[in-house]
What we know:
The protein has one helix spanning 2-30, and strands spanning 37-40, 45-51, 55-61, 64-69, 73-77. The chain is α+β, with helices and mostly antiparallel strands and 91 residues long.
Amino acid sequence: MPLLLMFAVFYFLLIRPQNKRQREHQEMLSRLKKGDRVVTNGGLIGTVVALTDAELTVELTDKVKVNVVRAQVNLYQPAVAGDAPAKKDGN
């Protein structure tokens, strides 16, 4: 009986919350689309410009693009409809 109680406590304190976090992370990754701002686990911040099943192409600044494994995206901010990046005048 005590062993069963210890397993139940272990499940509810460790396993279940981890599964919930993993499920939420997978849902977040499935919602990624072009124009979303992302932060990677490595600290890179940029805008998604292309997607594949396994990777993202993230634009960090003008003309600086990197490929990132999709699972390494930690946070994202969805693109706002009609929100285009500001164009520089060149002046």
